[in-house]
């Protein structure tokens, strides 16, 4: 344990020096935020010209019809334009919130609201006891104002963009109900969690990390169990995705003792049984390699590192003061305010972490594809023969998985020309052409006996 705690302690000591110094955090955070914005815009501009290509990649030439390809290019272009506009809009919003000290306003508004309803003297007398309700109101104000200001974008995306390309199945009524439900659920689940988060840090002091980690892990398990209880009968769910959107998908999630494969009804409707079998084989690959558990461990490790770097900033008056909070607040920084500002400082690191997570997740996709192929490779000659006879279900697992993936891409009008850097940054899955190429290579190796039975 000491080998872990030693470096952690020295890291915290170093960070303490930084957090105590009079640093212009506001300028640093704005610079970081702009840096990430310009990087993402650059990536989008690398990707954008690919929407002008008039023919699909050679590997898809026979299967991606000109009509489908043309539609997918137009859809991709519209989405890219929308992404460019909305990221610029959100960036301006973010800078405005920082520049005009809107968070400071929200914090004092939350305090004033409490004051109005009888919680008088919250600043002096009850700084500690009133911190939690004030934090909950503060977050509610921030989230509500963010949802309202980005509402036109969400409406445009659902009812203009997705509608135009034939994917929207949402009505205005359903949209309003979904939004209100989201708010209500977020408040009902979010506020107690936030309260517990703040209470644990206050109660445990500087040694809050193990307590907070235990709480957050327990919370995640409860959420996983709650989802489990919602569908108690089977481990293979068919989700009615078609009620809201016509996009298709399948995915695997779960913990070692509770595993689920989810298939959208839209995928089942559009695919042949042999193709669904291949998709299931891929999802079983995720299961067999315990991919969800591995991702869970990595994300907990990430959380642990994040929380470990936080204590030096927990009581950093210069940090809070540099964002325009009055001395009455900054001399004893509210935990939530310090935590939010701390997260803003981490923006570039989080972008790098996202990149690493995508790389890992891509690795898992290769493994799952390969698992499916090996499963097909291992089937008996009789099975192969049966498949060959069953007309549209014919082909080995690789061919069927390839057909299913191409079908999914065609059905979702997914972009098939993807810039590698753009994809590495944004996508958790390898591109379609990369996956097809890898599958072809594997099958070629099997044919010449490169992969022996013991590799399976
Ligand atoms: Zn997968």
TrEMBL record:
Residues that span the membrane, as ranges: 25-45, 136-161, 182-202, 208-226
Highest taxon listed in the record's lineage: Eukaryota
Primary location: endoplasmic reticulum
InterPro entries given in the database record: CAXX_Prtase_1 (IPR027057), Peptidase_M48_N (IPR032456)
Keywords: Endoplasmic reticulum, Hydrolase, Membrane, Metal-binding, Metalloprotease, Protease, Transmembrane, Transmembrane helix, Zinc
Its membrane topology: Multi-pass membrane protein
Subcellular location: Endoplasmic reticulum membrane
EC number: 3.4.24.84
Active site: 283, 369
Keyword Hydrolase carried by entry: yes
Cofactor: how and how many bound: Binds 1 zinc ion per subunit.
Pfam entry (one): Peptidase_M48_N
Top-level enzyme category: hydrolase
Any one GO molecular function term: metalloendopeptidase activity
Ranges for domain CAAX prenyl protease 1 N-terminal: 47-225
Binding positions (Zn(2+)): 282, 286, 365
UniProt catalytic activity: Hydrolyzes the peptide bond -P2-(S-farnesyl or geranylgeranyl)C-P1'-P2'-P3'-COOH where P1' and P2' are amino acids with aliphatic side chains and P3' is any C-terminal residue
Cofactors that this protein relies on: Zn(2+)
Family stated for the protein in its record: Belongs to the peptidase M48A family.
Functional summary from the UniProt entry: Proteolytically removes the C-terminal three residues of farnesylated proteins.
UniProt protein name: CAAX prenyl protease
Organism listed in the record: Hydnum rufescens UP504
């Amino acid at each position: 344990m000491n080998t872990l705690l030693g470096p952690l302690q020295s890291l915290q000591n170093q960070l303490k020096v930084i957090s105590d110094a009079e640093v212009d955090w506001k300028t640093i955070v704005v610079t970081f935020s702009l840096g990430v914005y310009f990087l993402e815009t650059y990536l989008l501009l690398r990707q954008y010209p690919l929407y002008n290509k008039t023919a699909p990649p050679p590997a898809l030439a026979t299967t991606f019809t000109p009509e489908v390809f043309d539609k997918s290019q137009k859809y991709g272009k519209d989405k890219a334009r929308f992404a460019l506009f909305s990221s610029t809009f959100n960036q301006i919003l973010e800078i405005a919130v920082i520049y005009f000290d809107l968070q400071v306003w929200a914090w004092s508004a939350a305090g004033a609201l409490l004051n109005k309803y009888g919680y008088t003297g919250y600043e002096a007398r009850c700084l500690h006891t009133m911190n939690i309700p004030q934090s909950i109101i503060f977050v509610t104000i921030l989230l509500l104002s963010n949802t309202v200001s980005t509402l036109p974008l969400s409406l445009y995306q659902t009812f203009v963009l997705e509608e135009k390309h034939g994917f929207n199945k949402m009505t205005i009524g359903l949209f309003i109900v979904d939004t209100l439900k989201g708010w209500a659920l977020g408040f009902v689940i979010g506020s107690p969690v936030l309260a517990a988060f703040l209470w644990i840090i206050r109660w445990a002091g500087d040694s809050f990390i193990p307590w907070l980690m235990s709480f957050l892990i327990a919370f995640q398990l409860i959420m996983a169990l709650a989802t489990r209880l919602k569908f108690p009968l089977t481990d293979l769910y068919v989700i009615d995705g078609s009620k809201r959107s016509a996009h298709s998908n399948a995915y695997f999630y779960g913990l070692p003792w509770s595993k689920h494969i989810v298939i959208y009804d839209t995928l089942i409707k559009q695919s042949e049984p042999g193709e669904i079998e291949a998709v299931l084989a891929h999802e079983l690959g995720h299961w067999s390699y315990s991919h969800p558990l591995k991702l869970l461990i990595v994300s907990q490790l990430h959380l642990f590192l994040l929380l470990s770097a936080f204590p030096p900033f927990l009581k950093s008056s210069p940090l809070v003061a540099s964002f325009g909070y009055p001395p009455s607040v900054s001399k004893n920084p509210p935990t939530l305010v310090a935590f939010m500002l701390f997260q803003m400082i981490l923006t570039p690191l989080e972008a790098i972490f996202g990149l690493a997570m995508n790389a890992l997740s891509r690795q898992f996709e290769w493994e799952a594809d390969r698992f499916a192929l090996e499963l097909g490779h291992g089937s008996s000659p009789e099975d192969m023969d049966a498949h060959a006879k069953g007309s549209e279900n014919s082909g080995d697992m690789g061919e069927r998985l390839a057909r299913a993936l191409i079908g999914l891409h065609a059905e979702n009008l997914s972009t098939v020309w993807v810039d590698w850097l753009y994809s590495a940054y944004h996508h958790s899955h390898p591109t379609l052409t990369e996956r097809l190429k890898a599958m072809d290579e594997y099958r070629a190796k099997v044919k010449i006996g490169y992969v022996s039975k013991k590799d399976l």
